[in-house]
Amino acid sequence: MLRSKLKTIFLASTASFMALSLIAFPQESVSASIRGLDMWLQIVFPSLLPFFIVSEMLIGFGVVKFIGIILEPFMRPLFRVPGVGGFALAMGMASGYPAGAKLTARLRQEGQITKTEAERLVSFTNSSNPLFIFGAVSVGFFHNAKLGIILALAHYLGNITVGLIMRFYGNKEIKSESTRKLSSFRTALSALHKTRIKDNRPIGKLLGDAVMSSVQTLLMIGGFIILFSVINKLLFHLQITAFFAEAFKAVLLLFQLPAELSIPFISGLFEITLGSQLISKIQEATLMEQAIITSLILGFCGFSVQAQVASILAQTDINFKPFFFARIIHGFIAAFYTFLLWKPVYERFYGHEQPSNTIPVSFLDEGSLIFTNMTHWAEWGSLITICMLALYVIIYAKRMVFTKNS
């Protein structure tokens, strides 16, 4: 009872402190909100929406079930998850955070994976997409496309390593898991057909449901992006970021890393985009040291992404704690892989090139959209988002009228 009361007091105090901070720094809060809104409007929504819609349709048509049976002999021995986990892994890597959590939750709701399997699966199917690693971080911040090779290798190798580690999660249930034999292509086709027949929704209804579900999820994601953009800005102006950075300097010095990386690292724990940008501006650090810290925050993925994942998982019985634990592991493993691969990969093949941290990055204004100069399609992002939101409103209104009349 006392613990519950203390939690209530803590939550109420935090919310009140947040409200007072917004009043104390109105201009900074609005600036941070616009920055988060721009990122969601022009980049996150148009890039994730197609993946979400297509994945919903693939589940409804039975394609995911088909892929699951084909990949069962690969995914089960390595990661102790069903073959459908291979689909979640591929889509998560292609589309980025938090697509892996969205698909895992969907598979759990469909009953295609158990609770423990879902907790294993979500721990290694959420990763940064290649566009962000190469386009935004490597080219946009560090002006060095070759650096993206190291960051991507460390990030995705770290992700696979986390999956291999998390296979031991829920080890007590290992005896109850059945080992399936190699399934034939005909069996997979039969399962695909049965799944489609079982989901007897017309194509129009299925497409409408996919749009509705995807837009609702992306609206939630947008809210978290804006919220944590504001929180990060307020923490900086309240000197809280500097306070934690001061304490973290000792850890950096222990690993022989520059103390100047402490503030960018703390910022990156909340939002990986701003953290990566700030890291690229630290002239006191070598490119390798910058890459190590960048890999760490990319693996941890920031509290903003973790809040998005927690919100998605809350719709199911999937526990969030294994995911959070896996993110800590991923961060340190990715940083270790960056250190390990630096000499044999980067210095061997690209060491003679001009270091990227000598190129000024002053044109990357904090309030501007960082992806706009790297991706041509981002110019159409706002238009795509507005059109899809209008379609969502039309579908929602028609369903409300239909429900009222029936």
What does this 3D model show about the protein?
This protein is mainly alpha-helical. It has one domain (28-405). The protein is 76% helix and 0% strand. The chain contains 17 helices and no strands. α5 runs antiparallel to α6 (115-124), α8 packs antiparallel against α16 (321-350) and α13 packs antiparallel against α14. The longest helix is centred in the N-terminal third of the chain and has 36 residues, at 26-61. It is globular and about 60 Å long. It comes from Niallia oryzisoli. Residues 44-137, 218-314 form the Nucleoside transporter/FeoB GTPase Gate domain. Keywords: Membrane, Transmembrane, Transmembrane helix.
Radius of gyration, in Å, reads 22 Å
Q: How many domains, in number, for the residues? A: 1
SSE string, helices as H and strands as E = HHHHHHHHHHHHHHHHH
Count of beta strands:
0
Class derived from helix and strand content = mainly alpha
Mean pLDDT rating: 83
Q: How much helical structure, as a percent, in the residues? A: over 70%
**Intertermini distance:** 47 Å
Number of helices: 17
Global shape: globular
Largest sheet: none
Strand content: under 5%
The low-pLDDT segments are: 174-179, 355-375
Organism: Niallia oryzisoli
Pfam families: Gate
Transmembrane segments: 48-71, 78-97, 147-170, 206-228, 261-279, 291-312, 324-342, 377-397
Protein name: Sporulation integral membrane protein YlbJ
